[in-house]
């Protein structure tokens, strides 16, 4: 487990706190045994052999006695132990000084520092969760507005198309009515012409043929216009169904938008609560 940047900021505060309260210098090594934070900043960046042994599982702790320090000027009396989080050794902490003081102090410090780091991790998780909630709220709000606008435009277009279709159907109906009138007039002319042809006798035979054709034309026209009127009527029915579907779709969409708009404040409240919870974990 690798500590985050904010965790190391906490470690730095912790090392400073130990020195301010006890006057004892401390070091903290990362998961690779490298001194990452230390009261003596010159030591930062160097590898600590004792920390390596602890992290590799070779030893549970590493102590330097006063006798060992006296025989080796590179060593300082003190005690090092692991920082354990969730069962993992994430680093080590060492405090220089008399063993009878530094050993219990370092053990307590390791537990306290692990607790601090866990709190920082919780803050990170809460912060990321809060950001995700905020981002999702923004995305959801944007999508709602986008979909609402698209649906509004689509509804207008469908309404206009339906209106144009209605106008065309009405115009067609008027034309059919006119043609029907013409067919009726033609039928009347045909009947009158037949009467006159009969009166004319032999001289009216040629005219009678024309009159018969006019009658058949009028009959065919009347039948055709009747079928067209049926089709126009069906078109009107279909247009009414389209209008009804548009109204139902609009109503359903508005209901869904209303539900989503009710959820959005709850999500915002959740995000606010998460931020408030995060602030309770912050350490000076």
Q: What tags apply to this protein structure?
A:
284 residues
Provide an overview of this structure.
The chain is an alpha+beta fold and 284 residues long. Helix content is 74%, strand content 10%. The protein has helices spanning 5-22, 49-55, 66-71, 99-200, 205-281, and strands spanning 26-29, 35-38, 62-64, 78-85, 88-96. β1 (26-29) and β2 (35-38) form a beta hairpin. α1 (5-22) runs antiparallel to α4 (99-200) and α4 runs antiparallel to α5. The protein is rod-shaped, with a radius of gyration of 47 Å.
Give the mean pLDDT. 79
Please report the number of helical segments: 5
Cα Rg: 47 Å
Low-confidence runs of at least 5 consecutive residues: none
Name the structural class: alpha+beta
Terminal residue distance: 25 Å
What can be said about the biggest beta sheet?
A: 5 strands, antiparallel
| Helical amount | over 70%
Quick take:
The chain is of the alpha+beta class and 284 residues long. The chain has helices at residues 5-22, 49-55, 66-71, 99-200, 205-281, and strands spanning 26-29, 35-38, 62-64, 78-85, 88-96. Helix 1 (5-22) runs antiparallel to helix 4 and helix 4 packs antiparallel against helix 5.
